[in-house]
Amino acid sequence: MEKIALVACVKMKRAEPSLAKDLYISPLFQGMRRHAERHADQWFILSAEHGLLRPESVVAPYEKTLNKMKKGERVEWAKRVCTQMEGQISRDAKIVFLAGERYREGLIPFLISRGNSVEIPFLGMRLGEQLSRLSAN
């Protein structure tokens, strides 16, 4: 079974257009990226601006987060991401979320309904605990 990691975008970004995998520069994102690269067959970024991003996509910096969106906006974002997933993620893949609740909430029901299994390895951990666990990996 293929394992696919979904890593949430973060606020800290480079100032110039970059490969998506290099655009986000916070320690949390960098740790999640390393985790995804080591433990998954493939990974994508969940971008509040662009939806589902391949790490090799070139994107410009932006200021948008699901954490500040209203519920309706998050629902629309999740619908867009689900449509993007249809063509890029197989129905039998195991999905590993390296993302917070707002990035997961509209996606998990869709993934489960199509037969994907879902794993959330850092569920319930505070930021410091996540960073500690990521630095140990």
What does the model show?
The protein has a single domain, classed as Rossmann fold (3-Layer(aba) Sandwich). It starts with a strand and ends with a helix. Strands 4-3-1-6-7 form a five-stranded mixed β-sheet, with helices on both faces. Helix 2 packs across helix 6. It has six helices and seven strands, in the order ββααβββαβααβα. The chain is globular, with a radius of gyration of 14 Å. It is of the alpha/beta class and 137 residues long. The mean pLDDT is 93.
Number of helical elements = 6
Series of H and E elements = EEHHEEEHEHHEH
> What proportion of the residues form beta strands (DSSP E)?
15-25%
In the CATH scheme, the class would be Alpha Beta
Name the overall outline.
globular
Distance between the termini: 22 Å
Largest sheet: 5 strands, mixed
Task: Please identify the structural class as seen in this structure.
Answer: alpha/beta
Q: How many domains, in number, for the residues? A: 1
Q: What is CATH's topology name? A: Rossmann fold
Total strands: the figure is 7
Looking at the overall shape, the CATH architecture is 3-Layer(aba) Sandwich
Give, in spatial order, the strands making up the sheet with the most strands: 4-3-1-6-7
Round the mean pLDDT to the nearest integer and report it: 93
Radius of gyration: 14 Å
Oligomer: single chain
Low-confidence stretches: none
Helicity range: 25-40%
